[in-house]
Amino acid sequence: MKYAKMTGSVLTGMALVCSLAVHAEPQFHYTIGTGAGSGIPGKLVLIAVDFTVNEISAGGVTEEVPEWSEEAIMAVKRGVANYYRGNVAFNIVLLPEVSNTEQEVIEEHVALYQVVASTARALIAHGGKAWQHKASRFDYTLGDGLAFLAERSGADAGLIVIGAQSVSSAGRSALSIFSVVTGALTGVYMPMTGGGTFLTAGIVDFRTGDVLWFNFDNKFKAGRDIRDSVIAANAVKELLDAEL
User: Fold this and answer.
1) Alpha-carbon distance 29 to 191, whole Å?
2) In terms of Cα–Cα distance, which of 5, 196, 19 is closest to 122?
3) Where in the chain are the domains?
4) d(CA 62, CA 52)
5) Measuring CA to CA, which residue among 30, 53, 215 is closest to residue 118?
6) Are 15 and 220 in contact (CB under 8 A)?
7) Which stretch of DSSP H or E encloses residue 139?
8) Is 214 helix (H, G, I), strand (E, B) or coil?
């Protein structure tokens, strides 16, 4: 199952959003907890887990390594399963069988979530007075294109988890060390980007398309390898603990 893959430039841009919004809180649809809505449904479909692992070469070229991406996706999926297995408030179920056309619709909405979540986080945190109303009345939506999943799955909402990681190649890591040593000796230091990771998760109402909740990993953490199941589980727990 493939979705819109994050290139190096997208990873950098999304990471910037995360780093700018370190102190921002997870966002909830304005009806959640106000009495106007029933809150986040207890039964959720895992719509998608997508994670891209890119390698940065010594020359600064960024390229996805598909095998690494698959390792990370499996680690995140295990982390999500373990998290909900121990959370009595929620029941997570797998995506029901869908046709090729329906799969394309799902992929379009996952890609749309990626854009909506990053844009919402940036504008609410840094858009100034013009966007303050969105912080107090968060009402972003993906549209009702996923409504068919409600009847097919018996659930009212779905979970999307998306992330990316950049890993420095051996040559780039060696060049970074050389840069530090040279800087110490000469006083001239050329900073090298060593990579990092981030995650975002969102819960989407199937019938309305409303984004009921979403959160970004609050730190662009270099050296955190999501391909490791233990690290992935901790990252997922940190992200999802802010649900309710």
Assistant:
1) 40
2) 19
3) 8-240
4) 12
5) 215
6) yes
7) none
8) strand
Q: How far apart are CA 233 and CA 218, in angstroms?
A: 16
Q: What pTM was estimated for this model as a whole?
A: 0.77
* 168 within 8 A of 176, measured Cβ to Cβ: yes
Determine the Cα–Cα distance for residues 215 and 213; give it in Å rounded to an integer: 7
Question: Which residue in the block uniquely carries the two structure tokens 């999307």?
Answer: 160
pLDDT tens, residue order, the chain (244 aa)? 555 554 444 444 444 444 444 445 788 888 886 545 558 888 999 999 999 999 887 677 788 999 999 999 999 999 999 999 878 788 898 899 999 999 999 999 999 998 888 888 777 767 677 777 776 788 889 999 999 999 999 999 999 999 988 887 654 443 333 333 333 443 433 333 445 788 889 999 999 999 999 888 755 556 689 999 999 999 999 889 876 5
User: Do 205 and 213 meet the contact criterion of CB atoms below 8 Å apart?
Assistant: no
